[in-house]
Amino acid sequence: MPDEIVIRAAEERELDAVAGLRWRWFEEDGKTAVVEREEFVRGFVGWAKENAGSHWCTVVVRGERVIGMAWVGGRLLGAVVERARELGVERLTVHSSGRAVPAYVRAGFAGSERLLQVRY
């Protein structure tokens, strides 16, 4: 069925598309890029490959096209949380846009006073 939506682990060949989605979110948030899109995609794909053992990406695919990734939609979030439980992970961390915070809170996510970061 061509319109069927499938949620599954991203394949290496799809990482460029995932990076493209992430870039688009960056633009939609009105942020100013410090690198060109192509450099961002190369860096994102390289990082994803290097960290595949500890970080995994879930995608939403319609036909052969990646139309979403791990931070999109309740169904996808549910699949990510369930997979984390299956793997027995200690902590599931997300990097959210401001618009998506309420969805994560509804799914049981909460902020942590001990998770600190520096923004540049």
TrEMBL record:
The N-acetyltransferase domain, residue ranges: 1-120
Annotated GO MF terms: acyltransferase activity, transferring groups other than amino-acyl groups
Name of one Pfam family that matches: Acetyltransf_10
Record's keyword terms, sorted: Transferase
PROSITE patterns assigned: GNAT
InterPro entries reported for this sequence: Acyl_CoA_acyltransferase, GNAT_dom
UniProt name for this protein: Acetyltransferase
Originating species: Streptomyces acidiscabies
